[in-house]
Amino acid sequence: MKKFPQHQILWQSMKELGTFNTERLQKDAQVGLATTVAYCRHLRNAGYLLLIGKDERFPIYKMVRDTGVYAPVIDVDGIFDPNIQGNLDPKARMWKAIRILKKFTLADLQGTAEVPSKVAWKYVNFLCRTGFLHLLNPDARRSASKRVYMLARNTGPISPTVCRLGKREQVLDFNTKTYYDVHLEVAANG
Q1: Taking the CA atoms of the chain, what radius of gyration do you get in angstroms?
Q2: Distance (Å, rounded) from C-alpha 131 to C-alpha 183?
Q3: CATH number listed for the domain at residues 6-85
Q4: Contact by Cβ (8 Å): 59, 51
Q5: Are both 6-85 and 90-181 of the same fold?
Q6: Which CATH architecture has domain 90-181?
Q7: 174 phi, psi to nearest 5 deg
């Protein structure tokens, strides 16, 4: 089971629906039924969902523990809830920093989000190529340390995520449930 984007999409749909059966949730989130059923079962066992009944074929759940915008993640050690336990993944830390800083250099982002330079550059590159960020000084394209970026599309607290659909790369904005094509020109590295 993929941790992202499927868990995040399911979590957002659960929050919006409140009470739902797994078939309705699966259709709303457009995630496989087996993934939906398994994730709901794990969240029920962890106390996030309450089983309140069953229709002809599917269990009916009610969300009883909404801890925040980030989806709890299931792994071999149990459940990890970034809303409670902190320790957001690097993309979430970078997105949070970008939303706070609004204008920044790669060095600013690296220091604020505590990520390696290669990770910061790669994420900024994708965000530029999909219109989430603008390069304010295009004349500095050849000098990475002098580039200044500005947040152009602040859609909410959940970090946009790079997805691969076949050979196509897209960025999924969980806040709006919108996919953005990655343009071929590389805005962040010239």
Answers
A1: 19
A2: 9
A3: 1.10.10.10
A4: yes
A5: yes
A6: Orthogonal Bundle (1.10)
A7: -65, -30
